[in-house]
Amino acid sequence: MLNFEFQVPTQVFFGEGAEKEVGQRVKEFGGHKALIHFGSRHSKQSGLIDRIAGYLHKEGIETVELGGVQPNPRLGLVYKGIELCRREEVDFILAVGGGSVIDSAKAIALGVPYEGDVWDFFTRKQKVERLLPLGAVVTMPAAGSEVAVGSVITNEDGMQKIPLNNRKMRPLFAVLDPLLTLSLPPYQTACGIADIMSHVMENYFSRTQNTELGDRLCEACMKTLIHNGRIVMEHPGDLAARSEIMWAASLAQAGLLCTGRQGDWASHDIENELSAVYDVAHGAGLAVVFPGWMKYVFEADIRVFVRFATRVWNLDPSQFSDERALALAGIERLSDFFTQLGLPSTLAQLGIPEDIIKDQLEMLAERAVKNGGTGQFMKLYKEDVLHILKNCAG
């Protein structure tokens, strides 16, 4: 086990009806005028945004609104939010939505007090020093951005999708009300589950030795997602299952599962290029890329994949000829699970035309390793990523 530092300053308010307390929470953290930042029209049309504004107004907090966040949130809207907050003298940012909304809100909060271009932080030209206080009301369990240190923003100029991680970017509080997830369509629910699973697996597939507690925490999280993911796809109104998934999303990104170990994150680097260029849903892209990555790297340390097969999927080693066959069977179980959720298994099924795939795979591979390679379980370079993408093409 590696040395580590662990702290989660985000205060989590979990439970049915927790949304009603959001006005009190913003007031507790010193907000006087808040930007309510959200994504889809559904959030407005359903009455959610008006309810949230009402809770704030009840506490004497003024509000302004900015909607329109897309999956793979855009820098252009971040600029618009920064300008709006400065003009309206906003002193608190409240994200109402999923990971894309929260990531966009973090970038706005970062940019308001900074005199330069907020993109400077993402290109590492400027260090994170301060940002406006922010909170989150989560409506889609997936990214875990409500407790995470990061924000991922896409710059429309060149469609560059770049993550920025800094502990100062964690929201002050997060409201997790599972009632808000009941209206999620099946495909969005499935994408969220795949995203959460991928966050856990990025930490789980580690070559760090003597990490038993961390291994079993990851396994418990994955088994919970598998069990409740199947339930919620058959019974969308099962609030107990949705509650488990919602809490798993936050736990996967709160920093607990990566304590004492070196994670990988190559699959995220590869998928970030896919979703930047083709604007595919992040969870759907991960459902394609992660099994492809696994099949390419598993023999670098097969013991981890054997553990995944036996502990997560309950496969019996005596039923397989050797460890290689057992490890591959575990990977297939994961692929089958994603398929059961209704997610794609190839780039073609993601909706990317075959001729475009063939023409641009090399470009995608080059972008994925632009920082000199990617991954820790097995270091990947351009030819490695190209091989994985070709196998994922379908």
What features would you describe in this structure?
The protein is of the alpha/beta class and 394 residues long. 50% of the residues lie in helices and 11% in strands. Strands 1-8-5-4-2-3 form a six-stranded parallel β-sheet, with helices on both faces. The protein has a two-stranded antiparallel ribbon with strand order 6-7. Strand 6 and strand 7 (160-165) form a beta hairpin. Helix 1 (22-28) crosses helix 3 and helix 10 (266-278) packs across helix 14. The longest helix has 23 residues, at 212-234. The radius of gyration is 21 Å and the shape is globular. The two termini are 39 Å apart.
Low-confidence stretches: none
Residues in helix, %: 40-55%
Summarize the main sheet: 6 strands, parallel
Q: What's the arrangement of strands in the largest beta sheet?
A: 1-8-5-4-2-3
Helix and strand string, N-terminal first?
EHEHHEHEHHEEEEHHHHHHHHH
The class by helix and strand makeup works out as alpha/beta
Number of strands: 8
What's the mean pLDDT score? 96
The helix count comes to: 15
The portion of residues forming beta strands comes to 5-15%
CA-atom Rg in angstroms? 21 Å
CA-to-CA gap between the ends? 39 Å
Shape descriptor: globular
